[in-house]
Amino acid sequence: MLFLAVTLGFFMENQREHFVEKHRAKIMAQSLFNDLKTDTALLQQLTEQRKQKILVLDSLMDEMDKPLLSQNDTLLAKLCYPALYTRVYFISELGTYEQIKNSGSLRYYKMNLQKALVNYETQTKRVNFGQELENKFVMENIVPFLMDLENPQFFRTVFSKNPITSSTPFRRKKSDFESTLYNYAIFIKERSRIYIDGMQRVKSEVIALILLLQKEYHLE
User: Fold this and answer.
1) CA geometry: angle 97, 216, 26, nearest 5 deg
2) How many whole angstroms separate alpha carbon 73 and alpha carbon 77?
3) What is the mean pLDDT of the chain?
4) Who has the most CB within 10 Å: 36, 46, 71, 104?
């Protein structure tokens, strides 16, 4: 009888722990689900922004493809900032996933869901690595180049939306910087293409995760 009571108590304790773990997994799944929906919206927004950047870069290069005397210096100067400097990067909502992983709670989930989470993290890290490379190059090369190139008085009036009072948007002769500017435009365009591809890969992993969580936990 004593052995039966101990066995039954042990069984009941295991059942209670299993119930608690299952309940905790569902709570974390809901939080993760919300994070993923936030990521999906951000990925879509950043993808569209990068596509617009590529259009601006094309406009910059189209203007530079014209004969030197036919180029519109004011237009070129205005396109430099959004084409080469302005950038917004993807920062994933990985808080819940990190909590799941660091607390050892990943074991609560089925193997296909665990694999999907790892794939999501891997693709996100790849995008982050590309972002770091691009940001490093922009800060070390493009920003100093633009600061040396642009007439600060001209850009002050541009960004303050006041009438332009300076007739010289550039402080250097165009023949001295044209090839460098064009090469930087090509670089950022290619990085943008790679960035869009990376974000689409992340988005695919996010959608796969969302579908798995919906199926497993009936989330909305």
Assistant:
1) 50
2) 6
3) 87
4) 36
Q: How far apart are CA 61 and CA 92, in angstroms?
A: 32
d(CA 33, CA 89): 22
Answer whether 91's CB lies under 8 Å from 219's CB.
no
Sign of the alpha-carbon torsion through 81, 82, 83, 84: positive
Nearest to 89 by CA among 139, 136, 131: 131
CA dist., res. 99 & res. 106, Å (int) = 9
* Tally of residues, the chain: 220
Report the distance separating Cα 68 and Cα 175, nearest Å.
8
Q: Which residue type does 80 have?
A: C
Query: Is the separation of the CB atoms in 90 and 48 below 8 Å?
Result: no
pLDDT digits (tens, 9 = 90+) for 176-213: 899 999 999 999 999 999 999 999 999 999 999 999 99
Given the structure tokens 């199926």, which residue do they identify?
215
Q: Average of pLDDT values for 3-25? A: 54
Euclidean distance between CA atoms 220 and 216, whole angstroms: 12
